């Protein structure tokens, strides 16, 4: 396989900048992260408002049992795949009839997620000020569950709701240390590539439902 | 009072729109300024600078420095020419520290007309009366390089009988752009016609601006379209009684 | 100015439907941006711009350091970094990898860098199928066209154009409802995603301290491209590197707002290396192709290197009164609008299209909206000077040079200036009280004719200002 032009390019860069190999960088601008103080009720209100503004649905339930009942109603017999999130198991969602879960093999996951109409996940965090779900890929959360089915349902305990991006990056200064993939999801998949007409569900889920527990 | 101000009328006003210069002088005199017109003035050099001819622009800039260096305050009826002096002369002399120091000493004393009135003279009401419906076009260099947005509007608000109707968008370029207007004439003309559509929508009968070059472009296109809407420099409006 | 550039501008201006499409689409994007960056909506917008500019400046000034740090961290996460100096090296790398793995089908998500190096054409030439999956890019690939706009590639296509393109290429019944057209593309491309051997993406940011590639999108096609196939190759310009993952927060707040007026794009993926042990899905192999392709030529000039700060939001296109008239395909290369006008001459050389830096009224709207504060008008002015230096050296455009030499002489000799003014004024037609529509010889020089092709000229005043002043 061609090895490319590593030395050539680095040499050109250094020559142009007047730097030498191994020279430490100049001082970087300080990191700019500002975390506002927002109480939990206001966060929940903001999260719901933002998601709904993007045509997503939100529900707030008091208990895990309520979440399970709600999800059972949403699934309503449709082919469904659920992630391996311990939280979904805790809520009893993983054991709902007709919900496929516990998938550990890539090929099984592709087949199951491609065939499913509903994909159920939890989320590692949610960001209140933008209506965003933070999905960290792990044995518990596969990437395809929130991507291939046309409906994505996320069940999120309220304590995972952060104020916004700055709090997320304060908690996770280097997401790559723990995962090969962190995805921020803000609303359903969309396009406006034809005549600027908004169409949802162009490649990913066209509908997103977020259930806040607690 | 001993308030003294020197006029840089710009080559365009000198050669094509002298009434604008006279109106500006009239307003300043009414405010009690003693007016000085350095006779050796010509052009700020912007046409050469914007066309990529730095050496030729430098020659013009050097001449400007020589002519105006001794003046206390300098006022110009153009945001674009003012900005050439205050924002671009320095670029021309970055390799000549002594000239650069002279430029920096001068650039603080060069003012676009409307901001001179509001910031130096400290007036908004110059006692003008102009009973027309007008719309205001923001010249790009006044707006974006000099940050002048409110000064002309505050001055117009105090003109008796005048109704200001903002066009949407007021801040979009008229398409003049110096030699751009002839190098890309068709494109420049298309931009002017878009500007005119915005002007016509306001129902105003007069377009006011701070820059004679924008006004030449807009009036030129209005005239070609057979429109009765006229253009006026702010100084001409403020000189009306 | 080349005939081709002028010709394309003329054709676009003549096409009334296209004029309306460009003006409406850019106008909408422009208005949306204004709403979400307003101080009520984002009080620290200007501070974020300042921070973004400082970060980009810092990253570019220490580019070799951050590239090496990025490379170390990608490698530590099990990925591989390949440096390519030009288009040939990029396609050679992809081709040899495809051969080694026996790959045939490639899915691609949007990447301006791969447009730069004509990657699809090169891969197809060697018998690989390479499918664009962003809806707009897919439409253009079927139509064999280049993107019209950095973020809205098919901005110039109507639903009827799309109906024709789909009918002809996909052999489906003619469909003009946009939702249904989108569903057709979803079905066709979903199959491609599931069958593809390799996914090629671009990258919005390369995070040095994490070895991560950040990809921002709305459709989900980039997520599919980087998740479904066994191999993920990210192709990115070397200037995309930023120091820390925490810096991404600053850019995320600016990018979607500036591009489409969204608070965040739908998907922001941070990808680092192939899937880790225990992870259920994701690629088995992860490559980052770092592309020079002319970028290092921009580094020596301290002022012009800021052109490399661009995060490809397209805000300068939407606000530019020139782009809004001449559209994307008038520009001589893949990058259009104000940013295209400053990077194209630097990548391709100023002689490639010497007219390009001059196709601007220097209104400054681009610099005002740039989220990373690139002083585009300043760079345009510098490039104009470069063009004239080259022309002078190569003895081109000598008449214009002579004219400006004469200009410099006249404006430094006030008596001559006054005399010539009087002569010109006496020779010009009077206009009979109105503005002038035509000028007879010898005053009808080319610039005068050009002006008069569109607008009238002011009648000469009876006296210049200085004459009036003396006589008052």
Number of distinct helices of chain C: 21
CATH topology of the largest domain in chain C: Rossmann fold
| Gyration radius from CA atoms of chain B, angstroms | 17 Å
- Average pLDDT of chain B, rounded to a whole number, is 97
Largest sheet of chain B: 4 strands, parallel
Determine the most extensive contact between two protein chains.
A-C, 82 and 105 residues
- Intertermini distance of chain B: 24 Å
Number of strands of chain B: 8
Share of β-strand residues of chain C: 5-15%
Shape of chain C: elongated
CATH class of the largest domain in chain C, please? Alpha Beta
- Strand numbers in spatial order across the main sheet of chain B: 2-1-3-4
Strand residue content of chain B: 5-15%
SSE-based structural type of chain B: alpha/beta
Helix content of chain B: 40-55%
Count the DSSP helices of chain B.
13
What is the typical, i.e. mean, pLDDT of chain C?
Answer: 96
Q: What is the CATH level 1 assignment of the largest domain in chain B? A: Alpha Beta
Could you tell me the CATH topology label of the largest domain in chain B: Rossmann fold
Walk me through this protein's architecture:
The complex is a heterotrimer of chains A (214), B (241) and C (472). Chain A has one domain (36-213): NagB/RpiA/CoA transferase-like (Rossmann fold). Helix content of chain A is 28%, strand content 22%. Chain A has 214 residues and is an alpha/beta fold. Chain A is built from six helices and twelve strands. With 241 residues, chain B is α/β, with parallel strands linked by helices. Chain B has a four-stranded parallel beta sheet with strand order 2-1-3-4, with helices on both faces. Chain B has a four-stranded parallel beta sheet with strand order 6-5-7-8, sandwiched between helices. In chain B, β7, α12 and β8 (230-233) form a beta-alpha-beta unit. In chain B, α5 (79-92) runs antiparallel to α6, α7 crosses α9 and α11 packs across α12. Chain B is globular, with a radius of gyration of 17 Å. The model of chain B has no long low-confidence stretch (mean pLDDT 97). Chain C has three domains: 1-43 and 314-396, Fumarate Reductase Iron-sulfur Protein, Chain B, domain 2 (Orthogonal Bundle), CATH 1.10.1060; 44-293, Rossmann fold, CATH 3.40.50; 400-471, no CATH class. Chain C is 50% helix and 10% strand. Chain C has helices spanning 3-14, 16-37, 45-61, 63-76, 87-101, 112-116, 119-125, 135-143, 159-170, 178-195, 221-227, 248-260, 315-319, 323-326, 337-348, 365-369, 376-393, 398-411, 414-427, 446-452, 465-471, and strands at 80-84, 105-108, 129-132, 198-201, 205-207, 212-217, 231-237, 241-242, 267-271, 285-291. In chain C, the strands form two sheets. In chain C, strands 1-10-7-4-2-3 form a six-stranded parallel beta sheet, sandwiched between helices. A four-stranded mixed beta sheet of chain C has the order 8-5-6-9. In chain C, α2 packs across α12, α3 (45-61) packs across α12 and α15 (337-348) runs parallel beside α17 (376-393). Chains in contact: A-C, B-C. Chains A and C meet through α1, α5, α6, β9 and β10 of A and α2, α3, α4, β1 and α5 of C. β9 of chain A pairs antiparallel with β9 (267-271) of chain C.
